[in-house]
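Per reviewer request, we include the raw input and output of the structure prediction for the construct analysed in the revised manuscript.
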Amino acid sequence: MLAVRRAGWHYGLAVGFHQTAHRVVHSYAHRRPFWWYLPLLPLITMPWGLRLLLFCNAPWLRTAASDPGLRFLAAATLPAFVMLSAISGKQVHYLLPLFPALALALARHAHACESGWSRIWRWAWAGLFTFPLVAWLAGRWGPAPTIWLQWVSGLPAWSVVLPAALGTAMTMISRRHRNFRIETWACTAGVAMWIWTLGAGPSLKAHVQLDALAQEVRLLEQQGRPVAWMGHYQGQLHFLGRLERPLPVLGTEEVEEWIAAHPDGVVLVSLKHRPQADLPEGIRWFCVEPGGIALVPARSWGQIAPVVCPGLR
C-alpha cells in the first residue's frame, strides 16, 4: 500500500492486478494446463520419487497417516502444490519452495523402506550416475541437434566420466556389503552433483554472457557514451553491471532518429538467433542462448540494420 500511495494508482493497478491477478487467472506467459506439474514430479524428484512410487504400499500409508511429522509435511506441501497447479502460469522452478519439506518426507519414506533395497534398485542408481555420460557421448558423436552440440562442446570429459565411475563403483561395493545404507547413496549423489556442476559451470556460462555484456555497458556509461536497447528489455543488465542510468528502449522506427541524435552512441540489439552472415567489423556479439545481444556502435548501424531487423524479439 505504501508503494501504491507513493507511485500512484496506475502503478498499483499494473502490479497488483494486471501482473498478479492476470498471471493467476489467465497468464500472458507460460500458460499451462492444471495437470502440467504431475508428469514432471517423478523426474524432478529422481530417484527418491520413483522409489516412493515403487514402495508405497498400504502398511506404509497407514503408518504415515499416524505420523505427526509426515502429516505436518503433507500440510506444508499438498495445499501449496494444488494452489500452484491452479495458477495459470507454470514453470518447473516454481516448485522449488516445496522441496525442503518434500525432501524430508522422501527421506522418511526411504529410511522406513530401506529393507526393500533390491538388486534392480542398485543398478538403477548406476544408470542414473551414467546417464550424463551417455548424453555427453551422444551429443559429441551421435546424431544430436546443433543446439545440443553447442552445449556439450565445452563440457570437460572428467565431469561426466568421474560420476559414472563413482556410481558404478558404489554399485559393485553395495553388492558385496548387504548393509550398505541409503545415506551412503545420498552422499554419493551429492558428490556426483558437485562434480557435474563444477564441470558444467564454465560451459554454461559461455552460453549466457550477460555478465560480460553488463560490464561492457557499465564501461560505456562511465565513458559518457549514450547506450540504448532495441527490442524488449527486462532489466537484465542493471543489477549485473551496477548501472546508474536507465537504458532507453527503442522500437524499430525509433532507432534511426536516436542514432542521428547520438552519433557516438551504442545500440544493444536483442536477437532470437545469431545472424547467419558474419557480423561487420566493430560489432560485438554476446551469446544468450538460444539467441544473443549485438553491441552495435552508431556508425555501424547502416551495415547491420538489414541483418538484425528481421530477427528482432
